Amino acid sequence: MPTLNWIGKDAVVKHHKDVLFRLLEPVADLSCGEAGSGNLIVQGDNLHALKALLPRYAGQVKCIYIDPPYNTGNEGWAYNDNVNSPEIRRWLGEVVGKEGETLDRHDRWLCMMYPRLVLLKQFLRDDGVILMSLDGNEHRFAELLMDEVFGTTNRIETFIWKKSYGGGAKSKQVVNLHEYVLCFARNKEKVGEIELPPSADVMRYYKFEDEKLATRGPYRLQPLATNSMDARPNLRYSIPFEDEEIWPEKQWQWSRERTLAALANNELVIKKVRGRWSINYKQYLRDVDGEERGSKLYSIIESIYTQQGTNELKTMFGDGKTFDFPKPPELIKKFIQAFTNAGALILDSFAGSGTTAHAVLSANAEDGGTRRFILVEMDDNIASNVTAERVKRVANGYTNAKGSVIEALGGGFQFCRLSAEPLFEASGQIRSDVCFAQLAEFVWFAETGTGFPHPQPLSPGERGEKYSPLLGVHEGRAVYLLYNGILKDKSVGGGNVLTGPVFDVLPKFAGPKVIYAAANRMGARAAREGITFKQTPYALEV
């Protein structure tokens, strides 16, 4: 497979392993609704934010949508479209070294994206997908980058989005009307069928009703005969009707058995038109199991334009400058509806104005879903005053700049910032203010590579009363953590050190056990009890 090379690649290809774990610190004043909604907005460098989120959400995200800087070279755009922000410059200097000061802008973009994509891949479920919006500036490099990180066999499609109506009067050469959305899967074989809810254009054809309306919905008529070039003798037979035998000009679409069953169940409409028989079958909106018939997702996306996203923000916030070129919610909602079910988790690590959260809440309001979102935005001003504010207004309802009342879509979110200090001190020791629930996430992730499946603390001060030293069972082995007085006793005999008396009061598990603790004083008994001991913090290498 062809691979992409660039200046600085050697420095970043494993950089995600060197990124320090930080903690998520809730900010109540910027949050909306109940903290337990499952929705998050995180302000901070998305590389550090992704590393902080992994222990909680690894392997749990169904759909990732990202809209990274397009790298047009536009210095004037506040959102650092040329990958030239102070944060990125500083990071390049630290990670890439002196080369980072003079890199070509394409090299900088690739250096920035590679470790972030590697981390994003770890969030996806086996049937999860990632979608990346971009234009022609990095499209050719991005495809090779995605091939390398996700594998060529996991490429689903490169969507063409017609973003503009037309125009181009100021263009000196070609009028550019499109952008791209790259789509890759964690494991393409696990993705399954991709369908959208039926559009209004499709629904207008479902205009007939019969006795099955309550269970199958309305129906449309489709011809049973076909002129398919694939001649199959078993599809050429007569249908008995009103003492006649009706033959197809070429063949039917269905087998004899299926056709006769449909005839008996009143699912065929047979008429004589100008002396010739016409047979149509009833295509119901819902199948026999009650599942609504979907529409196909096309590789070219039309009738959704950039201007719609701009107008959305303008009417929400007024004429004040908020954000350049936000994506229209309908575009992202289309992908969310195509690739997720009602309870899915969606992640956007380049959140910008918060369009992805808007699309998630809109999709939920439309189909009654309980999808959740995680947004990450680097810029503090944008995260606080645009991203969070937009999602808050969409969730709670608001009056727009035109005086129209926009109904609430429902939902809420917890706003968090990254801790200034990492989880571990420079000496390698766990910070003294880290509570049991926070460390449990990292222990579980270090041991299993998956997100911690238990309820999360609502505040840094919560000391884990709802938690047990038995974190869970993964692939047949139980994982335990002794830390910070989980047994209500910080002494050697009953707290953070594994001893015989401590083991005797732990929740029982008959199989193999992995126990994280400050020390092990069980001696040979540990092996007899099927215990693998791991010392914190030294064993927490992830």
Quote the distance from N terminus to C terminus: 29 Å
CATH architecture of the largest domain: 3-Layer(aba) Sandwich
CATH level-3 fold name of the largest domain = Rossmann fold
Multimeric state of these chains? Answer: single chain
Describe the protein's architecture and organization.
With 542 residues, this protein is of the alpha/beta class. The chain contains 15 helices and 25 strands. The protein has helices spanning 9-12, 46-57, 86-95, 105-123, 139-150, 200-203, 213-216, 256-264, 306-317, 329-339, 355-367, 380-396, 436-448, 500-505, 525-528, and strands at residues 24-26, 40-43, 61-66, 124-134, 155-162, 178-185, 219-223, 225-226, 239-241, 244-246, 251-252, 268-273, 276-284, 300-301, 345-348, 372-377, 398-399, 405-406, 414-418, 470-474, 477-481, 497-498, 513-517, 519-520, 531-535. The chain is globular. The chain starts with 8 loop residues before the first helix and ends in a 7-residue tail after the last strand.
Kindly summarize this structure in a few lines:
The chain is of the alpha/beta class. It is built from 15 helices and 25 strands.
Any chance you could write out the topology, listing elements then pairs?
Blueprint: H1 9-12, E1 24-26, E2 40-43, H2 46-57, E3 61-66, H3 86-95, H4 105-123, E4 124-134, H5 139-150, E5 155-162, E6 178-185, H6 200-203, H7 213-216, E7 219-223, E8 225-226, E9 239-241, E10 244-246, E11 251-252, H8 256-264, E12 268-273, E13 276-284, E14 300-301, H9 306-317, H10 329-339, E15 345-348, H11 355-367, E16 372-377, H12 380-396, E17 398-399, E18 405-406, E19 414-418, H13 436-448, E20 470-474, E21 477-481, E22 497-498, H14 500-505, E23 513-517, E24 519-520, H15 525-528, E25 531-535
Parallel strand pairs: 2-16, 2-19, 3-4, 3-15, 5-14, 15-16, 21-23, 22-24, 23-25
Antiparallel strand pairs: 1-19, 4-6, 5-6, 7-13, 8-11, 9-10, 12-13, 17-18, 20-21
Helix pairs in contact: 2-4, 4-5, 10-11, 11-12
